[in-house]
């Protein structure tokens, strides 16, 4: 089967990035409310890469990250993985809970919640743009080597193509800039369904 | 260092080389060794069984085809099948999920690898498997020793 990711035009990637931008806007609003302070979020870049190259985004297979995974059901089934380097993830937890020495159970569930907010904000934006029904499953969190997390997700979802859409996300809070990556892996024809709903494909 | 990626396998008799599988999650690194001839092999297995039982173009991807193929390559490199011993690493469950979840593929990988090794009469001498931690593993053909590394833990020899 042809991998539709390889046939995406730069215009289509721009549109998907724009969906990401709106999603980041929603997420920033939700996070600001949760943290009771103004958080800015931007999507500097979106790109399509082979999944196996994803570890290089944060410095390699063995880099410690926090990953939040959920699958998406409904009209455009697929999978989402949000991951952030350890330093960014801990900074996010500290924004929520004050200074921390290590990741506690509380911190872990706070991160799970942040991951939940982020991923569902993107999905809401996607639903708004396309009119499609997308329903996320509860998020699962892992704190470990990126390669171990990514490969496990990749294997679970097996059938999905080699390429993934990466939406880079930057959080700004009082001069601190944190980075995270939202990886979207549509199943089967889901990406085509999305592009059609966006009016980009016949 | 020879990096053995997902669904890859590698055999060497070069005592100065190192075979490595980095960032193992639910994947299993199968390491076979002939201690007399000092031939070492590693397969980076992703799934328990191949759909057609033959593995197609990626025999190392599946436990049931990776191990026979690895043995075959090791014999070509001078190993004797009856001398082979096995070490295993990986097969973790990276996310906390119910036992019957498809996300528990690590456990199924381990089971499939162990069954295939038993079928081929290859003894498993040491393992660092299961749990919920990612692992990087290094295998040394000169000695047959393996080293495993996880985040927040000291490197272990096994």
Strand arrangement within the widest β-sheet of chain B reads 1-3-8-9-10
The CATH architecture category of chain B equals 2-Layer Sandwich
**Helix run count of chain A:** 5
Coarse structural class of chain B: alpha+beta
Q: Give start-end ranges of low-pLDDT stretches of chain B.
A: none
Classify the secondary structure makeup of chain A into a structural class: alpha+beta
Instruction: Please identify the oligomeric state.
Output: heterodimer
Mean pLDDT of chain A: 82
Classify the helix fraction of chain B into a percent range.
Answer: 10-25%
Structure summarized in a few sentences:
The complex is a heterodimer of chains A (202) and B (158). Chain A has 202 residues and is α+β, with helices and mostly antiparallel strands. Helix content of chain A is 42%, strand content 29%.
Description:
The complex is a heterodimer of chains A (202) and B (158). With 202 residues, chain A is α+β, with helices and mostly antiparallel strands. Chain A has a single domain, classed as Chemotaxis protein chec, CATH 3.40.1550. In chain A, 42% of the residues lie in helices and 29% in strands. Chain A has 5 helices and 8 strands, in the order αββββααββαββα. In chain A, strands 1, 2, 3, 4, 5, 6, 7 and 8 form an 8-stranded antiparallel sheet that branches. In chain A, a hairpin with a 3-residue loop joins β3 and β4. Chain A is globular and about 50 Å long. Chain B is α+β, with helices and mostly antiparallel strands and 158 residues long. Chain B has a single domain, classed as 60s Ribosomal Protein L30, Chain: A (2-Layer Sandwich), CATH 3.30.1330.200. In chain B, 18% of the residues lie in helices and 33% in strands. In chain B, the strands form 2 sheets. Chain B has a 5-stranded mixed sheet with strand order 1-3-8-9-10, with no helix packed on it. A 5-stranded mixed sheet of chain B has the order 2-5-4-6-7, covered by helices on one side. In chain B, α1 packs across α2. The radius of gyration of chain B is 14 Å and the shape is globular.
């Amino acid at each position: 089967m042809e991998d539709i990711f390889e046939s995406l035009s730069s215009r289509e990637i721009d549109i998907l990035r724009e969906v990401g931008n709106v999603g980041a806007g929603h997420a920033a609003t939700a996070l600001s409310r949760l943290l009771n302070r103004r958080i800015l979020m931007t999507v500097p870049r979106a790109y399509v890469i082979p999944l196996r190259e994803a570890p290089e985004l944060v410095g390699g297979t063995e880099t410690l990250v926090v990953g939040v995974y959920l699958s998406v059901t409904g009209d455009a089934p697929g999978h989402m993985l949000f991951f952030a380097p350890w330093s960014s993830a801990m900074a996010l937890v500290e924004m929520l809970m004050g200074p921390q020495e290590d990741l506690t159970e509380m911190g872990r569930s706070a991160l799970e919640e942040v991951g939940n907010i982020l991923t569902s904000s993107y999905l809401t934006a996607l639903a708004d743009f396309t009119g499609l029904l997308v329903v996320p499953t509860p998020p699962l969190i892992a704190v470990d080597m990126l390669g171990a997390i990514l490969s496990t997700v990749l294997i679970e979802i097996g059938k999905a193509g080699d390429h993934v859409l990466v939406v880079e996300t930057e959080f700004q809070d009082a001069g601190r800039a944190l980075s995270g990556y939202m990886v979207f892996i549509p199943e089967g024809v889901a990406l085509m369904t999305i592009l059609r709903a966006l009016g980009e494909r016949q | 260092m020879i990096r053995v990626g997902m669904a890859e396998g590698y055999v060497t008799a070069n005592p100065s080389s190192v075979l490595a599988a980095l960032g193992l999650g639910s994947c299993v690194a199968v390491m076979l060794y002939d201690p007399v001839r000092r031939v070492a092999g590693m397969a980076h297995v992703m799934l328990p069984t191949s759909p057609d039982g033959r593995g197609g173009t990626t025999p190392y991807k599946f436990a049931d085809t990776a191990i026979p193929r690895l043995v075959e390559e090791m014999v070509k490199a001078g190993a004797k099948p009856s001398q082979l011993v096995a070490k295993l690493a990986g097969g973790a469950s990276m996310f906390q999920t119910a036992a019957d979840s498809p996300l528990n593929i690590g456990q199924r990988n381990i089971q499939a690898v162990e069954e295939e090794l038993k079928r081929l009469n290859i003894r498993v001498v040491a393992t660092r498997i299961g749990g919920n931690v990612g692992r990087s593993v290094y295998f040394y053909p000169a000695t047959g020793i393996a080293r495993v590394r996880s985040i927040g833990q000291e490197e272990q020899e096994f």
